[in-house]
Amino acid sequence: MNGIKTSLVAAMLFLLINPVVLAADIKLELKEIDWELKNGFSTRVWSYNGSVPGTPIIVTVGERVIIEGINHLPVATNIHWHGLILPNDQDGPSRTIAAGAPFRYDFIVKEAGTYWYHSHYRPVLTQVDMGLYAPFIVKAPGDEKYSGDHTLILDDWYLDSTGKRLPGTARGDMERYGNIETVNGKTADGIPPIIVRPGELHKLRLINASTAAYHTLRLDGHRFRVTHTDGHALSKPYITESVSLVPGERIDAEIAATGEVGQTYRLSNERPELGMTVLFKYEGEAVVPPISSPFVAPSSREFPGIDNKSPDFLLELNSSGKMNEVTKNAMPGVQHQGHDMQPGGEMGDMQWTINGKTFPDTEPLKVQVGEVVKVRFWNKDTRGMHPMDHPIHVHGAKFQVVSQNGQKPEREMWKDTINVPAGQYVDVAFVMEEKGEWMLHCHILDHEDGGMMTLIIARPDK
Description:
By secondary structure, the protein is mainly beta. Helix content is 7%, strand content 41%. It contains five helices and 31 strands. The strands form six sheets. The protein has a six-stranded mixed β-sheet, with no helix packed on it. Strands 22-21-24-29-26-27 form a six-stranded mixed β-sheet, with no helix packed on it. A hairpin with a 2-residue loop joins strand 2 and strand 3. The longest helix is centred in the N-terminal third of the chain and has 15 residues, at 3-17.
């Protein structure tokens, strides 16, 4: 059966099993506001419906989602539904919403999970850094059985003591890292606590919206049971003391409330002095009966024989000292600053490459809809004193992580964003379900805007 027929049959089966239900229309206004990060400390942001993060979109599998709104920002924009598999014209990057213009998105959600939406209008760094992001949650049937379901969006801001946005990058950095870190748009004592009782079971949905910062989180006296990566259920959940998220990545984890009444525990990253700390407060007089996990692990979905398949494409990731025009304009009226490879020098002219080229001159990956494709990402960015990791995000598909440096992962993982450490390689495999031109890029937004992006051109099988 050819790819088109396969896709049509799959779509028909999906609709039979998951009848389409029209969700309530979602209205979004994009506007500039002053946003309070904590009491008495505000900054100017761009927002979805007047908040950062923007309005959460929460739906169930099979719902038809219609999002309409108006762009009140002084600039053009668009919206990318990060992690969702949609028709190409709904994915976002190919669209432009002019300043003052209305917009409409209309699609059906097919898979439960934790996703998010954000601007993808280039230079992407500018608009995401200004606050244009929000959660998109597709609920699974068992989610309502948790004692609490908490979405935590992690971010960082580069501001002065008055809340004014600082230009470029901190001296010594090649990417735009912040000096204030936030959870759901709040920092330090502005972050509301999570109230729990012994015996409860809470679900955490963690989303890294930072443009460059990685976050490793720990919760004092507790462990995480990780159930999903990038919204996709693990066939073998695992327990860990800490969870790490690269830009664009999501992790779902369960927290069993094993603490003591009257005690407070801290969920924080490795830089708590920057304000990323959530307090877990145990309240109530009685211990609730222990709650069993409602999570149901799926069966294996690995591609048969994928371990022995040679990569169809090799993408070498690297950098060089030459800035392209998009990078120069990544922050309006701002020069990128940092250290060159020479001591004391100013960088200001970095570009990031795939197979030695920068977007739009990178070579696209030409594939067919329904075809199993294996790609090797090889990070050659190891020169000088600043080797760089590159978290690669694929639009329009979820991928199986096949191997890391030739070694099969400990557990089957499906993702849409994968970190490729400096000097290492990662093999992934995916099937494009929808035709069209899809982006593949580093989700460190300095690197994406600086050229580390290409296209996957998915053609219908003839």
